[in-house]
Amino acid sequence: MATIAVPAARTVRRRSGRLLLAGALAGPVFFASAIIQMLTRAGFDITRHPISQLATGDLGWIQITTFVLAGLGGLALAFGIKRTLTDGTGRRALPVLVGIFGVGLIAAGVFTMDPEYGFPVGTPDEPAAQMSWHSVVHSAAAAVAFTALAIAAIVLTVRHVRRRAVLPAVANGAAALVLLLPMSPDHMSIQIAVNGLVAFTWTTVLALWLRRAA
Q1: Neighbouring residues of 86: CB distance < 8 A, sequence distance ≥ 6
Q2: What is the pTM of this model?
Q3: β-bridge mates for residue 116, sequence order
Q4: Is-contact 74 107, C-beta < 8 A?
Q5: How far is residue 111's CA from residue 64's CA, in Å, rounded to a whole number?
Q6: What digits encode the pLDDT tens for the residues 85-126?
Q7: Average pLDDT value for residue range 181-198
């Protein structure tokens, strides 16, 4: 029985490691794609256009695909957490919350926002006269996704506090605070980009931490 159990345990760890690796890569892939698009797509201005607006126009399929891949990475991370975090605070809540984040990203990719403020090129340089239904779904999906991740960061903060791990607790608390800050109408696109950077840095660090622990 022991000779069978050891290879089985190794297989489980290997699969868990792959899931966590996929979760760790979601953020770097998302931002590599977004940055390349921001630098190469005519008319895009990060001070006026949120990253989500890259999903509009003829080349919008690139950002749509990016959202979906990042969402799948989030789901992989959720399953990886479930497999590796088997005790203590957050063992049940964290996989669910990170899973909601992943599903929200996929929905945000499938349901795009409206062209506006001159992007894509040829769009009137003004806000959309009325938000389309898919733009409303996009905004709602993104809000739910980032709120779920902020709550996940709070749960992990509590876990680290109970284990007297001060620096991880402070780092997770700071991430949650940034993600929960209200949006500023004057700097919304920049704030969205910062929130995305914080969110994906958090998922990458969490995935690598769990992978190392596993």
Answers
A1: none
A2: 0.93
A3: 119
A4: no
A5: 9
A6: 999 999 999 999 999 999 999 999 999 999 999 999 999 999
A7: 94
